[in-house]
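ok trying this again, last paste got cut off
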Amino acid sequence: MSRFKTLDEKISEKIASLLSEDEEELSPLQKKYREFFFRKMDEYNIKSPADLKTDEEKIKFFDDIKDSWEKEKKEKNLE
């Protein structure tokens, strides 16, 4: 077994961490991001980023997340 994690493993761990955190432990901004992230997954018809099949799909998804989150933060004055 390789000691290096694949991109899918890293993504899965990050998402699992995000999903498993208690709502009470999250800051208001983290809660907003969590809601945003779930909406984006719904838009892509996925339950996890690991459901994306190709690296290109994953790059597109995460680029969309990054760009859309920055836009939403500015529009809603979130910080």
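PB: full thing came through this time. The chain has a mean pLDDT of 84.
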